[in-house]
Amino acid sequence: MQVSQTAQRAPEGAVLLRSDAGGVATLTLNRPQARNALSEALIDALARELDAIADDRTVKAVIVTGAPGPCFSSGHDLKEITARRSDPDRGRAYFEDLLGRCSAMMQQIVRLPQPVIAAVESLATAAGCQLVASCDLAVAGEEARFCTPGVHIGLFCSTPMVALSRNLARKHAMEMLLTGETIPAADALRMGLVNRVVPAGHALDGAKRFAATIASKAAPVLAIGKRAFYEQLEMGLTDAYAHASRVMTENMLARDAEEGIGAFLEKRQPRWE
Questions:
Q1: 234 to each of 72, 173, 205, 231, how far by Cα in Å?
Q2: How many CB atoms lie within 10 A of CB 157?
Q3: Is the pLDDT of residue 9 over 60?
Q4: pLDDT digits (tens, 9 = 90+) for 160-219
């Protein structure tokens, strides 16, 4: 496997690892001793790497996974949060800043030109579950589990709610948020939180298969489609159709659409720009 320069430079103890191969960047949450919790450092590292990937035309798809251990990610680092309760404002400014940075990072995933795939083998809880829901696609090993358990500790999972409510049916999202119960991979598939469930230990392989399929397509077309998908979701039906029609008209005029349609009619493989 060809390893990216980012991964080669990663210092020992780095909270995020990156490796690139075949047009796919794999980002690995690397805090297994802390259940891959989304610390300040890890949130910032993800934000920086997503920024770099957004401008990297060699990357066609992204996989987000966790270092092996009991958790894909346990959500926010509660030790960091608790330490700031002694601030003069009881941590208000810190909490606002932390949640703002985390929310911005989740939105980076949605706005990234490249599709992002979560590969989950273990427990994804709270903001870790939010991270899975924020990705465009998700593959789970059959032993993976998911929950938004804030209600158990007096803290409703309000920011994870944003991603869940945009991926799951309303009653499924409310069930997870109100009960805090842990759901198995099979239920996550039924509810629409993940796309595929694969044998335990093969989530990353499944995500790589998704990524390879995506990487074979015209990257500018995928970027156009991903952006339009999320934009139209926020619109009423009439506005959504009008917006999608404008996007598709511009896409029709693009070189890749002309090449793709021509290749189909000529019964040959397209040569993407």
A1: 29, 18, 33, 6
A2: 23
A3: no
A4: 999 999 999 999 999 999 999 999 999 999 999 999 999 999 999 999 999 999 999 989
Phi-psi region of 21 (alpha: psi -120 to 50; beta: other; left: phi over 0): beta
**Right CATH for 219-265 from 3.30.428.10, 1.25.40.10, 3.40.50.1000, 1.10.12.10:** 1.10.12.10
Cα dihedral angle (173, 16, 214, 104), rounded to 10 degrees?
50
- What is the DSSP-derived secondary structure letter of residue 194? -
Residue type, 81: I
Which residues of the chain does CATH 3.90.226.10 include? 5-215
Residue among 111, 2, 97, 100 nearest 50 (CA): 111
Residue pair 209/216 in contact by the 8 Å Cβ criterion: no
Tell me 98's DSSP state: H
Where in the chain do CATH 1.10.12.10 domains reside? 219-265
What CATH number labels 5-215? 3.90.226.10
Distances (CA, A) of 236 to 127, 136, 244: 29, 22, 12
Distance CA 261, CA 238 (A): 28
